[in-house]
Design a protein that fits this description.
Layout (H helix, E strand, L loop, with lengths): L1 H18 L6 H7 L5 H11 L3 H11 L8 H11 L6 H7 L14 E2 L3 H5 L2 E4 L3 E13 L4 H6 L1 H5 L9 H10 L3 E9 L4 H14 L18 E2 L7 H30 L7 H6 L4 H9 L11 H21 L9 H8 L4 H4 L3 H25 L4 H23 L12 H20 L17 H12 L1 H9 L1 H26 L17 H20 L9 H20 L9 H27 L4 H7 L2 H25 L10 H37 L4 H10 L5 H6 L4
Parallel strand pairs: 1-4
Antiparallel strand pairs: 2-3, 3-4, 3-5
Helix pairs in contact: 2-3, 4-5, 4-11, 10-20, 15-18, 15-27, 15-28, 15-29, 18-21, 18-24, 18-26, 19-20, 19-28, 19-29, 21-24, 22-23, 23-24, 23-26, 24-26, 25-26, 28-29
């Protein structure tokens, strides 16, 4: 009896403590911020000191004929009956979000105790099971509308997120409707339209008139229970698919290790090559063996590729802060206005670097092969390209359309991953056909792979430039310059017609950022540079010292203007903004071209030394796989959060390092499972000469490394 009294006292203390700050009082919060008199305030204050479930239970008792007796109403009555007798009602109440501090700093999302709510599993009087159901209530707060008006510039940054994406739903709640987002925990039998109706009646009883749309919305599709998810046929198919490849990896690796242990001489056997194509041991060796025989002249490209990839990853890390709950939303406004933040906001220039490198390598490798063979099989080139890129991409698309939903959970997991998964279920074909930058562009599957579509299309069109250069060099140069000018004009026209917002990074929007005709200029400039490097292979290029100094100064000035040129845009004229939006990518590309020229011909100094470090070669081999997986890695970290987090440069950078480590690991798994095995199978299918096979074995790296590098795009 004594222990029962102690428990009862503890529960009473918890009740008094929790109710005072319970999210249910969000009803009162809504009322308080709209109250017009002290009398009304006292009414709202009385409601504030109560809880939602108690309010609902008493409302049901006071209005017995108003509602049909549903299982939800029965379970709410059970909650009230057990409140001071059992622990589960207190756990349910304690799981609610509380009115957060710092509302004026836009800390307007309180997600309570997600796991605690779902842990509720109680047999009420040994009669029926009551489980917790976690939902979020959205309560408008008109009085803080002025704060959102101050964040209009930040709202524009949402244009960097694909339309109709789940992340945009949360962004709209945070920046558009001015709603307080609070967690609630209810019996699992409750439907949210039923709860919304009750809340509307409660508010009407205290003088807040009923409206066509509920003042407090609780989306049913954002609720979560502990019930196991129902697997679809696609999910089972994906599981079987990945298990099959996992078995292939184990069998191939086992065979490889057995052969190496007994030192059998099978290196020249096609059957042996086939059996070890999925070997983790062999493929890992290919990835991490430095190629000492490679020409050092192009090694700086490894560094440019790796650093650009890091820029992409950290940029996407900062973008994640626009998609997840944070406690200091107003600090984003301050951050955007800081000079140093331009280094992150200007991250899309890294994409232009990738386009430049891709065009360079296409030209350099293509003409080098033409010099050897005097002919070029374009259909075979296209097939190689497709086989090189598609298996790893298809694996990611299949995973994201199925098993990705089971990787994690949390208050915002389902909301933010729902559209990401649906986009791949519906639009997987546009991704695998490399047309998603023009077809269903607002519903991208594996969003970052729009770049692959652009680059594949440019690769397919490359014979338009290759063939004239091969047959008539002067005509070819004229033709190439013509397409560079046409591409630049296209960018200018789109910039002029769309009147890009001066507070948004250049070229954002589905009508410009993803379109090949607006992204071709850097690729074409890279192609011109690659052809020039090919022509000068046997030449001893000398550059005057004064020209070298001027070149480096101009390079740094142009890069600085491109990266930080947006900072004073609030005071710039429309003409200045138009010129920046039209020519910033071109200027950046020209500056990177100088870096490559200086490094290749011996004028790079410490910059060339840094860009040519051997570590970048390893990162370069993993870069394609890393590019494919990095955003899902970031989503898995960000969308699993249980509470709002604090935004700061320190936190973002620390999380970025976590992103890189996990991305390297996941990229490694993707590469050895799909990328490298398919490359090995392709070489077998197309009957590479034994001498080529033996040379590859000695080097312990993928054959045709440069061609591989063409396809390692980010």
């Amino acid at each position: 009896m004594k222990s029962t009294n102690v428990i009862s006292n503890q529960l009473q203390f918890l009740k008094e403590t929790i109710v005072l700050t319970n999210v249910v009082s969000a009803i009162a919060l809504f009322s308080v911020v709209n109250c017009d008199s002290n009398e009304n305030f006292e009414i709202y204050k009385q409601i504030f000191n109560r809880g939602l479930l108690q309010e609902l239970s008493e409302h049901i008792e006071e209005n017995p004929g108003l509602y049909n007796i549903t299982q939800c109403i029965t379970d709410i009555r059970a909650w009230k009956s057990d409140f001071l007798k059992e622990k589960w009602p207190i756990i349910m109440l304690d799981s609610y979000g509380k009115i957060p501090p710092g509302l004026l700093s836009l800390n307007i999302q309180s997600y309570g105790q997600f796991d605690q709510c779902l842990s509720i599993d109680h047999f009420y009087r040994n009669d029926r099971l009551i489980k917790g159901k976690y939902c979020v209530a959205k309560i408008p707060i008109p009085k803080i509308k002025s704060i959102y008006n101050e964040l209009s510039r930040i709202a524009n940054l949402r244009n960097i997120l694909p339309k109709n994406n789940g992340s945009r739903l949360l962004a709209n709640d945070a920046f558009g409707r001015q709603s307080l987002i609070m967690a609630i925990c209810l019996p699992h039998t409750c439907k949210m339209d039923e709860i919304e109706t009750m809340l509307g009646n409660i508010l009407e009883n205290v003088g807040i008139p009923h409206r066509d749309k509920p003042l407090i919305t609780i989306p049913e599709n954002e609720c979560v229970t502990a019930e196991p998810a129902i697997w679809t046929p696609t999910d089972w198919g994906a599981l079987a698919f990945f298990i099959f490849f996992g078995i292939l990896l184990l069998l191939s690796t086992g065979y490889d290790l057995i052969v190496k242990h007994f030192k059998k001489d099978t290196e020249t056997s096609i059957r042996h090559d086939l059996l070890i194509s999925f070997s983790i041991w062999t493929n890992t060796s290919k990835l991490f063996t430095i190629n000492k025989n490679n020409s050092k002249s192009l090694k700086c490209l490894h560094g440019l590729r790796a650093l650009s990839l890091m820029w992409v990853i950290i940029g996407h890390r900062y973008i994640n802060y626009l998609m997840i709950p944070i406690t200091n939303g107003t600090d984003i406004l301050k951050w955007v206005g800081e000079t140093g933040s331009m280094a992150i906001i200007s991250g899309p220039f890294s994409v232009d670097t990738f386009f430049l490198l891709s065009g360079l390598l296409v030209a350099y490798i293509s003409f080098r092969q033409l010099d050897k063979k005097q002919c070029f099989n374009f259909p075979l080139m296209y097939l190689h390209r497709f086989l090189r890129l598609t298996p790893a991409l298809a694996a990611i698309v299949f995973f994201q359309a199925s098993l990705s939903r089971y990787i994690s959970n949390g208050p915002i997991w389902n909301t933010l991953t729902k559209d990401m998964i649906e986009n791949c279920e519906k639009n997987w074909w546009t991704t695998l056909l490399y047309i998603q930058n023009y077809v269903n562009v607002d519903n991208l599957c594996v969003a970052q792979t729009w770049y692959l579509s652009c680059d594949m299309q440019l690769f397919i069109l490359s014979p338009i430039i290759i063939y004239p250069l091969l047959r008539w060099r002067r005509v070819g140069w004229t033709n190439m310059i013509f397409w560079i000018v046409v591409s630049q004009i296209s960018v200018f026209v789109v910039a002029y017609e769309n009147e890009w917002n001066k507070n948004v990074n250049y070229a954002y929007g589905s009508q410009s950022y993803f379109m090949t005709h607006n992204r071709a200029t850097p690729w074409l400039l890279g192609f011109a540079l690659g052809y020039f490097i090919h022509l000068s292979t046997k030449s001893n290029i000398k550059i005057n010292k004064v020209a070298v100094i001027v070149g480096w100064i101009a390079c740094f000035v142009i890069m600085g203007a491109a990266v930080f040129g947006m900072k004073p845009m609030d005071k710039n004229s429309k003409l200045e903004l138009l010129m920046y939006n039209s020519f910033a990518k071109t200027g950046w590309s020209i500056a990177v071209m100088w870096v490559i020229i200086a490094c290749i011909y011996g004028y790079g100094g410490p910059i060339n030394w840094f860009l040519s470090l051997e570590i970048w070669e390893i990162v370069g081999r993993l870069s394609y796989a890393m590019y494919l997986v990095h955003m899902f890695v970031q989503y898995s970290i960000s969308f699993s959060t249980r509470h709002a987090i604090y935004f700061s440069n320190f936190n973002a950078v620390m999380t970025f390092f976590s992103d890189v480590v996990l991305t390297v690991f996941m990229g490694y798994l993707l590469s050895i499972s799909f990328e490298l095995p398919v490359m090995a199978l392709e070489k077998i299918i197309f009957h590479k000469k034994k001498s080529d096979v033996m040379e590859r074995k000695k080097a312990s790296i993928p054959a045709n490394l440069e061609i591989q590098e063409i396809n390692v795009e980010k």
